[in-house]
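Subject: for your reference before the review

Hello V.,

The reviewers asked for a structural picture of the protein, and I figured it would be easier to keep everything in one thread rather than splitting it across files. Below is the amino acid sequence we used in the manuscript, unchanged from the supplementary table.
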Amino acid sequence: MKKIGFLSFGHWSPSPHSQTRSASDTLLQSIELAVAAEELGLDGAYFRVHHFARQLGSPFPLMAAIGARTSKIEIGTGVIDMRYENPHYMVEDAGAADLIAGGRLQLGISRGSPEQVIDGWRHFGYQPKEGESEADMAREKAETFLDLLRGEGFAQPNPHPMFPNPPGLLRIEPHSEGLRERIWWGASSNATARWAAKLGMNLQSSTLKDDETGLPFHIQQAEQIRAYREAWKEAGHQRTPRVSVSRSIFALMDDRDRAYFGTGNESNDKVGFIDEKTRAIFGRSYAAEPDRLIEQLKQDEAIAEADTLLLTVPNQLGVDYNAHVIEAILKHVAPGLGWR
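And here is what came back from the structure prediction:
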């Protein structure tokens, strides 16, 4: 059995072929797709977060809106770029959204990926400390965020407050119990996966990771997951961690599917540089008739290792088509793999 969710990049474009021609279109359709996915029996609705781009940015208003419209589906991010965040304010936003959703948030956080502008986090008022990198800054903010989510008091109360205070030091409110255990780290390397395990975060591994061995993507990703689980065991955490991978998977059910995804152009891994220093490997996409798709997915070692699979969806093709994509996987592929 696996949990299966969708992952939307939240693009919009004024292109005549786009069903999401504005930010409003993308936000409102994201809510409607989450509602439709819940009705179909999907387990999660996850969203990418990018700044300075025609893509979804601030996630908490969207997740709160989805939380108010749904009752069962997990609502998550993949991932929030911690270089841009104030951990204290983020705890307030996350706590409020999680309470509205009834404890269904699954927050993926990370250092983030290369953005649309140079050092965009500087425009948000942040910069690394002397001698630190932007990755150090992101990890430090993540650790602060995790500490604050524990809900322990740390702020000295005003002796003459406007309203009465509870006894002792004050914490950030609202506090959502259990959210601390539903934080995921988006790891691109084996080292950061082990670091996430040490801190007790779940693991998100996407369709891109550092090319550390030259092996096929799914094998490198499976190795990363095993390294993470070993580090988790060594850390002595009491609960069982969760691990997700994301994939572009399309069951070719009709002429629309074949027109959009039946060309086979993305059936191999790709290797490239995401910045001047980082060589990365990008995982392949899957698109085939259900029987053939099942056989292909059986060979993916990382999917086999993970407990959660996030299906990347082409959000610009609209709610109805994406619901069709999701339904095809749930009905015609997942049972053949033992996921349902």
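For the response letter, the relevant points are probably these. The two ends are 6 Å apart (CA to CA). Residues 3-337 form a domain with the TIM Barrel fold (CATH 3.20.20.30).

Happy to draft the paragraph if you're swamped.

O.
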